[in-house]
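ok so heres the complex, two chains, lmk if somethin looks off
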Amino acid sequence: MVGGGQLARMTHQAAIALGQSLRVLSTGTGESAALVAADVVLGDHRDLDALRRVADGATVVTFDHEHVPTEHLHALEEAGHRVAPGPAALVHAQDKLVLRRALTEAGEPQPVWAEVSTAVGVADFAGAHGWPVVLKTPRGGYDGKGVFVVDDVDAATALLDRFGTLLAEQRVPLVRELAALVARSPLGQVAAWPVVETVQRDGVCHEVLAPAPGLDDELATAAQELAIRIAERLGVVGLLAVELFETADGVLVNELAMRPHNSGHWTIEGSRTSQFEQHLRAVLDYPLGVPAMTAPVVVMANVLGGAASEEGWAGPGLDERVHHLMAHWPDVKLHWYGKGQRPGRKLGHVTALGDDLDEVRARAVAAARYLADGVVDPAFAFDEEHP
Amino acid sequence: MVGGGQLARMTHQAAIALGQSLRVLSTGTGESAALVAADVVLGDHRDLDALRRVADGATVVTFDHEHVPTEHLHALEEAGHRVAPGPAALVHAQDKLVLRRALTEAGEPQPVWAEVSTAVGVADFAGAHGWPVVLKTPRGGYDGKGVFVVDDVDAATALLDRFGTLLAEQRVPLVRELAALVARSPLGQVAAWPVVETVQRDGVCHEVLAPAPGLDDELATAAQELAIRIAERLGVVGLLAVELFETADGVLVNELAMRPHNSGHWTIEGSRTSQFEQHLRAVLDYPLGVPAMTAPVVVMANVLGGAASEEGWAGPGLDERVHHLMAHWPDVKLHWYGKGQRPGRKLGHVTALGDDLDEVRARAVAAARYLADGVVDPAFAFDEEHP
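and the predicted structre for the whole thing:
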């Protein structure tokens, strides 16, 4: 697996059960996956030699991020390595303009868009579809980075000067954001998890609610079928996360990821087959596992470095917070990524399961918030001396 | 963790979620845990220097087997290392005579027993309690090794000549074997999983049925309380598996293990907190997790090297069998230990979950049997070409 972050870390956990050991290409020994995997190759994912070193002797090369240059992936394939997903599929998760063109060609629902490289182009687009306009860098964005909402030509010009060609999109009147996660094997077997709601703040996923609460059955099925169609059309092997905007008129495709995805962390405990196991099954060309849920409601909450990660924090330290979390929520599952604490960083996640959405969500969010900010939710007040 | 077998391998999986990385003392690079852990110390568990190397800098030293000499554990403690379970507790899992004496002193139920070192001693015991007599080596036995059922003085004499002092036990008229698994933290918090039935053949565990089918509620509670009393009395920190004989009159203690145990593998998917996570929580002095079951019925079946591990096997190879297993039972969870195949060896296990014991058990056993022996159960017949 190219990339040593938390996705590789959790994929390694799943690999162990399958009798595999994940080899990881990591930029440093301190990365999440490098801390726990037996077989770590140090190197940069933009360095073809490093890629060759991690590929050599591996059954298949796969990814925990989208940042490997396409030409390097072709070079690996030409050298006889199996790459999953392959470069022709992966480029749709790497380049938003490529994705938009492909979806237009396929006739799939997406926001109105245009490729813009001049102020006039943006002004024309806004003239036709109104301000504000969403401008996105075609490559390299994640977690809200590379996405800008602009209200006038001056702001657009500044971005064009800085980034060059951009993707312009009409701002969509959102009901909420959803994600449809599917897996596809080389032979075309697919498996779809229930569609989930992703609760974002500032472009960063904070919570995932599985299944998406109150989602119309037909719309849920349509979203799953949309994801399966995209996986088939693009020839995805492995996981495909389709990030969706739910609007009054249905769903629109926001963007794609072709790897285990934050919207699928809930599957570790919440599905009979976790996204990490399923990704491995798919890229290793094993039959896929059942994606059935293990509880009626599952909520995942990210632990993003917060007040407790800031310098000068005088509250309980991390180990003490973990202690309190476990004492107070003995049924909340913790996944800690082994990273240094830093404000805004995804440090870990927690998962809660149960029958009642409000209760399960409150439990997950309170636990994550306590870890991140040291804040005790009044609904979950406890005595830190005697948790 | 001292020992690099499958218990350490699965403990490492659990450690990753807790933000930990398990350091493993392994006798070779090819051991189950050494294949997947980032931090492997090579050495023998009987070598104090090796133990010091694995203990140095570790939060706590724990075990995946019972074979570390007690004096070495005292030496580690004297050097300031935390050892969990401590040597005073662990000796009861290491030495069956020590266990028998402690249970007699505690007034806990166990088979009638005596320490014997002469043929006359065995004859006296048999005179009082009848033939056959069960003779056990006090130390070093596992999976039925070191246990002998003898019918006369000659057979007993041969064993005494070979092993010296033995534990003699009355053969108990068994209803079945049960196991009560509990965890205990340094502060004395305990958590008990439901009592399970362990299905043994030739002293080797083949299946674990959770919860033990049809077990009387009072007897189940009594077995859990017995395990908790033993954990408290012996000062166990970590997991305690109490292997029990169910008889017409209640339960008797067979033997103890103070580590994750084969009778608890079902907890990985079958309990909100797996035995591996719970052991880590306990030895790291974190609060314990909820031991609730995630499904009404969970069955674990061991995959013991069978016909398919024998030389000259002409059926489908391991990878092909795994492929068929996944295709035919997409909801059966596989845990493969990464070991070389050898007849009789514990190569992995499978877990099935559901509502109906007969169905769940048949599914788990058929899947395990197909992996081990390449035998397709008629009830699960499938076309190998098109699974």
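quick notes: Chain B touches chain A at residues 9-10, 12-13, 15-19, 21, 34-38, 40, 272-273, 281, 286-290, 292, 294-295, 322-323, 326-327, 330-331, 333-338, 348, 353, 387 (CB under 8 Å). thats all i got rn
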